């Protein structure tokens, strides 16, 4: 049961959260539509390899990771999107592609897009393609200690404009 590990972790830290069930969906934008959540307010977890090491990026569902920005931020030689084959065994309690943004539960660094802090709450996949968790953004930051920066193309375009 994927949600149990996340629930146990949140409960052990006395975090208030809401579980949202929805019809089966595999894309972040599809989930956003089903759950009636803006793509900017729904966070998706994108697994990357930074110099060959798996890491987690957390960005709005409506955007894409700017790998060059992440490479500069981390000082890495190479940053690439990880394939499902690269990370499927790293999340044994989750359905592939539905990982929650808690890299600390999986020994992974977390990089979060700064635009997610524009909202009081964050909503994200809870380990399945049928459940979301909504919680306070500040609680998520406190629990995962992510590196927060501008990580997306859209954010980068806004910064220049």
Word description of this protein:
There is one protein chain. The protein has 161 residues and is α/β, with parallel strands linked by helices. It has a single domain (2-160), classed as YbaK/aminoacyl-tRNA synthetase-associated domain (YbaK protein), CATH 3.90.960.10. It contains six helices and eight strands, in the order H-E-H-E-E-H-E-H-E-E-E-H-E-H. Strands 1, 2, 3, 4, 5, 6, 7 and 8 form an eight-stranded mixed beta sheet that branches. A hairpin with a 2-residue loop joins strand 2 (42-50) and strand 3. The radius of gyration is 15 Å and the shape is globular.
Distinctive features:
6 helices, YbaK protein, alpha/beta, globular, 161 residues
Continuous helix count: 6
The beta-strand count equals 8
Sheet with the most strands, sense and barrel status = 8 strands, mixed
Number of domains: 1
Mean pLDDT: 86
- Gyration radius (Cα, Å) is 15 Å
CATH class: Alpha Beta
Q: Outline, from the CA principal axes?
A: globular
Element order, helices and strands? HEHEEHEHEEEHEH
Span from first to last CA? 45 Å
Helix/strand-derived category reads alpha/beta
CATH domain fold name: YbaK protein
Task: Determine the strand fraction and express it as a percent band.
Answer: 25-35%
CATH homology superfamily: YbaK/aminoacyl-tRNA synthetase-associated domain
């Amino acid at each position: 049961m994927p949600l149990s590990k996340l629930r146990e972790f949140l409960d052990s830290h006395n975090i208030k959260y809401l579980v949202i069930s929805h019809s089966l969906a595999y894309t972040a934008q599809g989930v956003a539509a089903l759950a009636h959540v803006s793509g900017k307010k729904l966070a998706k977890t994108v697994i990357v390899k930074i110099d060959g090491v798996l890491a987690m990026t957390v960005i709005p569902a409506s955007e894409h990771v700017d790998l060059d920005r992440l490479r500069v931020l981390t000082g890495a030689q190479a940053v690439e999107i990880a394939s499902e084959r690269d990370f499927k065994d790293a999340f044994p309690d989750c359905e592939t592609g539905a990982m929650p943004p808690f890299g600390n539960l999986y020994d992974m660094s977390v990089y979060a897009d700064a635009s997610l802090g524009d909202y009081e709450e964050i909503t994200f996949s809870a380990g399945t393609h049928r459940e979301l968790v909504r919680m306070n953004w500040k609680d998520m930051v406190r629990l995962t200690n992510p590196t927060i920066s501008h990580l997306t193309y859209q954010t980068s375009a806004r910064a220049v404009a």
